[in-house]
Amino acid sequence: MPTVVEVRFKGNRREFFSWEQEIELAVGDPVVVPVDRGQDLGHVSAVGDIAEQKCGVACNGCEVGQKRAPKGSVVRKATTEEAYVSEQLRITEQDVRRKVIERVRAHTLSMKVTDAEWQWDRKKLTVYFTADKRVDFRALVRDLASLFRTRIELRQIGARDESRRIDGLGRCGRQYCCSSWLPELRPVSLSLAKDQRLSLNPTQISGGCGRLLCCLRYEHEFYVSARKRFPKLGRALRTALGRETVETIDIFRDRVVLKAEDQTLRTLTLAELKREVAGVAPKPAERTREAAPDPPQPDGREVTTDDAVQAVTPRKRRRRRPRRRRGGRPDGGGNSGGGAPS
Length: 342
Prior knowledge:
Helices cover 28% and strands 22% of the residues. With 342 residues, it is α+β, with helices and mostly antiparallel strands. Strand 11 and strand 12 (265-269) form a beta hairpin. It is extended and about 90 Å long.
């Protein structure tokens, strides 16, 4: 039975393949895999059940409940010489990136070259870049193809994808989540920081990519569910001391700060606040059902069946007659001048 294998390439790029041979693969083994118009070399990062789980989590564009099919079968386990060739290609990619930057400046294109990646068989060179708007790089592709004598692919990526490829350390002192373990880059909005009562200063809630931190999503569900137990900020409550307003809340210590009408503050736990509000709240009054008296009649006579039917039946509208024009018939067919007909 074929085994699912996760293979990683440069820039934290990964694909899933199937392994059909009897030799078992271990994490870190170099393997040769089929790609578009050639072969590429990567390293095994997961095998078996773990790879299948990661394949299901990182699936993009698949239907719900549908597993992602492997891209192909692993050709073979790479030899030491093949792994050495791959390492030499990685060393030369820095020079390739510098040459591409020079060509971009010569063509005066508003784009930032992030990285360059050779395919293992040198049949394709992929250049990653970022740009604020759409760039017409057709002339640049022809120039690079004549320079490197291979197939050129220019791929535009976003700021988050750029940080994912370059990698680095975040403000927490650990490796970027998008480069280490985060399977999918989900959008992060400013409302997540507002719900957590964080500072809205962009320099404090932004990552190395210049966008909002991906970790803002990790605890957002906890903050939303925890705040549902507390009254909203600014809400007026009637307590044992009278009318008070909710000033601040502390979801970690279950505390609420109230402000009285004389601007004095006091702190209560959530349980104490609920007991105090429940003890002051007025009890609902018992409703008594009384029969409504009959409406008095102005003339003092009894109401008959005919009177009830006339009261319920809607009145008929009187049909309005059209106005008669001067010197003509009601339908306006006469002479407008008012003269006698001939």
